Amino acid sequence: MAGSSKAEELERQARFVFIGTVRRLKAATMPEIKKSERERTVVVRVDQIIQTPPLYKNRTGQEITVQLKKGERVRVGQQAQFYTNGWLVGNESVAVTSLGHVAVPKGGAALRAATLDPVRSLAFRDARARVDDADIVCSGTVKSVQLPQGESRSLAAAPSVPPLSEHDPMWQEAVVEVNDVHKGPQGRKDVVIRFPSSKDRMWADAPKFRPGQSGFFVLHRAASGGAPHERAALLSHGEESAEGEYYTALHPEDFQPFGRESALREVLGAPEDPGEN
Q1: Closest CA to 50 of 109, 127, 129, 132
Q2: Residues 258 and 150 in one domain
Q3: Domain of 88?
Q4: Inside any domain, residue 123
Q5: Total domain count for the chain?
Q6: Where residue 56 sits, what CATH number does that domain have?
């Protein structure tokens, strides 16, 4: 794998990417890391953050623990660009696991990285990935919320309705009046989103829709996409073959209200409120 393609592949998998200098081998910045775990841990000073979740945004200039992957080698004094994911968070320091490292980029790539907001850089990458994975991305307004057709028929025949399971999603359907389609087939006026109204931990983070909500919707065709637990729930309730086309938006970032500063809006190149155009 060429150097640039290796870096691109590592960047797709890593959450915390930084340039750092190796300070100590077989060492750690946190007492929580046992001596038996330090064969592959090194202490690295964070020189520059390239992309990061908010948790690590203030780590520039600090020493952190990096657990190297099997076969990965570094030396004291070596500066490299590390591709990592979170491991441990302590009172004074953090530890991350390395997916790999490359030589520090030079020239234009290094200059661009130095001028980007690391937190925004990761948010933009995540938003772009969500758009790429979606079947439809649109902006619009929720005009009604109701029980799915199949669910309504089941309620009418109450004696045959099975008891709710612990993680029952309690599906509802939101009908969204579409202002603009940013990805997917053009010309649709409405789209139906099936969402879990349950506050159970399995569904707690999924967007809950109500009439009047306006924003951007990142949607997945229910029969072919969505999380495995969502498809399993649909099948268990006989909903996979329900009448009509509908979509899901189960990730917390699958709905972004108008007026909220978001990486999704930047990826789409959309104004704050497309409905005003």
Answers
A1: 109
A2: yes
A3: 3-116
A4: no
A5: 2
A6: 2.40.50.120
137 lies in the same domain as 251: yes
Tell me the percentage of the chain whose pLDDT exceeds 90: 66
Identify the band that residue 186 occupies on the pLDDT scale cut at 50, 70 and 90.
Answer: very high
Cβ neighbours for 34, distance < 8 A, ≥ 6 positions apart: none
Judge contact between 216 and 255, C-beta under 8 A.
Answer: yes
Tell me, yes or no, whether 56 and 191 share the same domain: no
Query: Largest Cα–Cα distance in the chain?
Result: 73
- Residue 135: C-alpha distances to residues 182, 218, 222 (Å): 11, 8, 10
Decide if 89 is inside a domain: yes
* Global confidence as pTM: 0.69
pLDDT value, residue 225: 42
CA separation, residue 177 to residues 139, 165, 173, 217 (Å): 9, 32, 13, 11
> Beta 247-248 vs 214-221: how paired, if at all?
antiparallel
Q: Which residues of 194-204 are buried (b: 16+ CB within 10 A; e: fewer)?
A: bbbebeeebbe
Residue 74 and residue 68 in contact, taking contact as beta carbons nearer than 8 Å:
yes
How far apart are the C-alpha atoms of 20 and 103, rounded to whole Å?
11
Q: How confident is the model at residue 115 (pLDDT cuts 50, 70, 90)?
A: low
Q: Average pLDDT of the chain? A: 85
Find the Cα–Cα–Cα–Cα dihedral 210, 216, 220, 221, rounded to 10°. Answer: 70
